[in-house]
Recover the amino acids of this structure.
């Protein structure tokens, strides 16, 4: 479908960025500059995806009015599951393309259910990473028109998306490439594979230990709680494990950032999402949370399920989404949380039986793993240049070796002068805890914005 108005069943537009793809009527959102690719590559890709039964949003008009994305276009981005930006030579000249891309990245950061699959049509990833003049010159023009603060998020979105593995169209037959892209999109939608960062370091031993706790051959229902401080990598670990074992279950569901959604009063939507994922039907809807509890218990009690409850912070979230007696033999529920006190057993909550719970604490990375992760983002190599070895080791150890902080700070220092490195180290030494938490706070604020 090309525009939402063409769909008789489309719901009203939403101005919120938090729809979390619940009941989405689009699978794919195509982001492209019309004059560059509309009548050739993008048109062929749209018809290939549409022919495969994939619901695609492609805008029929060049909307260049206004400075904010709203109405049906924002709704289409919010609810789409896969974003496909098509980077062409004049892509960065379009402020509208950049606004779309930035909103897509915000939604992608917020929900691990979404995927970005970039296509480099007649450019290199280095162009999109702003390491050449191709996009840089266009962005300078935007800065003159809109100001630095407006354009800076566009730059960050370009760099971040260009770091994701995608397709290079150069020296390739378009028909063959479009077929590969269609197959990849179809497989992503069919399998519901979780997306994890490409630069994973030091996670294998965590995976082995949690896998042991999950007890592959046990017919008991088992909960494993992965706990640790914010930014330590709990969600990434849960994603890796989910990908590895999802095919072994009758139904699977990964509910992202429950704390945030619970604060927004969306527990019912999470219940309906869980039911939709496990029963593979979007028509099943609970009218309220109490009804949702009964539906999960009745519809799932004979199914072997895998459920991930990401970022819980209160007991009531757990008891409204997953209890031991609700699921069939061999089911596994993985919980990520900063606070394991939500699992405390008391006389008034006998259903939370301690024998079904196993706890895995994630601690700071080993130094050599932390240096390797930081170096990959700061230098795009496994190890730093000799002259940066000392200062990098100091920065790494002053971040608390939190993976998220290492990635963010390392990426921010890519290509920067020694003076900038010295300034970052000075701030970390003066206020180590505060500086790291500020980095994580800014990232969370960015990912939660709409």
């Amino acid at each position: 479908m090309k525009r939402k108005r063409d769909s008789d069943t489309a719901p009203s537009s939403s101005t919120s960025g938090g729809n979390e793809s619940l009941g989405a009527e689009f699978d794919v959102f195509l982001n492209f500059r019309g004059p560059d690719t509309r009548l050739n590559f993008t048109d062929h890709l749209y018809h290939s995806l549409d022919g495969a039964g994939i619901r695609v949003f492609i805008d029929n008009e060049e909307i260049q009015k206004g400075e904010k994305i709203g109405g049906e276009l924002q709704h289409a981005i919010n609810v789409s599951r896969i974003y496909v930006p098509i980077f062409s030579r004049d892509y960065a000249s379009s402020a509208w393309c950049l606004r779309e891309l930035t909103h897509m990245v915000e939604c992608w950061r917020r929900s691990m259910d979404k995927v970005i699959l970039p296509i480099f049509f007649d450019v290199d990833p280095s162009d999109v990473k702003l390491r050449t003049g191709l996009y840089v010159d266009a962005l300078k023009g935007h800065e003159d028109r809109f100001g630095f603060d407006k354009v800076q998020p566009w730059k960050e979105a370009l760099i971040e998306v260009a770091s994701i593995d995608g397709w290079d169209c150069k020296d390739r037959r378009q028909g063959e490439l479009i077929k590969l892209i269609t197959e990849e999109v179809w497989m992503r939608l069919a399998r519901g594979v979780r997306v994890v960062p490409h630069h994973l370091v030091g996670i294998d031993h965590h995976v082995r230990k949690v896998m042991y706790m999950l007890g592959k051959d046990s017919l008991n229902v088992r909960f494993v709680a992965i706990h640790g401080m914010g930014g330590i990598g709990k969600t990434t670990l849960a994603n890796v494990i989910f990908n590895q074992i999802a095919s072994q279950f009758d139904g699977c569901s990964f509910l992202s950032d429950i704390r945030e959604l619970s604060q927004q009063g969306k527990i019912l939507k999470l219940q309906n999402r869980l039911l939709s994922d496990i029963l593979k039907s979007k028509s099943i809807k609970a009218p309220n949370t109490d009804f949702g509890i009964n539906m999960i218990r009745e519809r799932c009690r004979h199914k072997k399920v895998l459920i991930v409850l990401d970022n819980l912070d209160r007991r009531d979230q757990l008891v409204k989404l997953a209890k031991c007696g609700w699921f069939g033999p061999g089911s596994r529920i993985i919980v990520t949380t900063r606070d394991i006190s939500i699992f405390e057993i008391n006389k008034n909550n006998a259903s939370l039986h301690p024998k079904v719970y196993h706890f895995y604490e994630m601690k700071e990375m080993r130094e050599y793993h932390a240096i390797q992760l930081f170096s990959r983002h700061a230098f795009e190599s496994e190890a730093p240049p000799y002259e940066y070895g000392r200062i990098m080791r100091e920065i790494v150890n002053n971040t608390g070796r939190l993976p998220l902080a290492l990635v963010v700070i390392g990426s921010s220092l890519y290509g920067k002068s020694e003076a900038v490195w010295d300034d970052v180290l000075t701030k970390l030494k003066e206020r180590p805890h505060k500086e790291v938490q500020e980095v994580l706070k800014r990232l969370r604020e960015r990912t939660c914005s709409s």
